Amino acid sequence: MIQTIDIQNYLPHRAPMLMVDLILSLDANFVETSFLIKEDNIFVADTVFTEAGLIENTAQTCSSIVGQKYFVGADGTVDENAKVIGFISALKNVKIHLLPKVGDTISTKATLVSKFVGDDYTLCTMSCQSLLDEKMLLECEINLFIQKTISTVK
């Protein structure tokens, strides 16, 4: 179990598209992240973090489970030159109960349901929840496709 690490070690995302601050807990099948919603976030409208923001936060949280394969070596060192692309291939059973506001810190949890690993790509399904304290914000199942890319820059 890894505790409180910078999400940028596991994702290619950078501001303004980075929707996770810290990984609070991570193993091969589970991840929990936190995210402080700031006023200048691109998914904030009228001081409310939108549905699209919640879904992007969830996708980035889920990606860290699979991303560790591409960004962290067997010895635990981070490969800062690793390049991946990824996208949501499906959202299922999405339920948005409540939208958080600027200044709220949300917690997002994802559990791996299934995974298929190819030579340079991974397909996975995850069960997800986003919370504000004990209040459920979002529940869904998400399918992700993540692929390692070959860099042409030397």
UniProtKB/TrEMBL annotation:
Could you tell me which Pfam families the record lists for this protein?
ApeP-like
Gene3D superfamilies according to UniProt: Hotdog Thioesterase
What protein name is recorded for this chain?
Answer: ABC transporter permease
Q: Which organism is it from?
A: Flavobacterium hydrocarbonoxydans
